[in-house]
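#structure-requests
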Amino acid sequence: MSYRIERDRGIKDYREQLAELREKWPLAFPVNDKDIRPLTVDATREIAAAKGWSLPYTLGVLSRWKMAPVYCQSILCYDQRIALDGTPAEMVGAKAKDLASKHLARFAAGAAAKKAAKSGARWGEAETYRRATSRDTARDAGAIALPCAGGAPASERVAALWRRLTRGK
């Protein structure tokens, strides 16, 4: 099968496969959001080998996990990654933190655009608001840390945004 087809299949099968990943590696894939930690860079290859999955399929399954806002927050909150067995591994790099900040900013902008659209704003107004929010949030995200278990937020604006995003979880 082609790379794209395998990856898409992994994305589609995410929910079923997450249950298997949690059973095999409960420390790497915890149920409770507050226990999520960044995974080691080699985790994808280890999972593919252990489960007998192709690398594109494994990347598809893990893309949903790693792109979740709670995982992005863990990238920003913790300086060290963990291996699949929960042991400390390499440090989280600045590039990973930057990508996580940008992803959270895009997620927040999309949520704001949906909210604006639901409130009766015309599509053009909602899209303009989404773009402006995304640009402003992405610009600010580089110097701002989200609230973590052991630290205070650097910006009240981002803290309020994070509370809105995680409400009800």
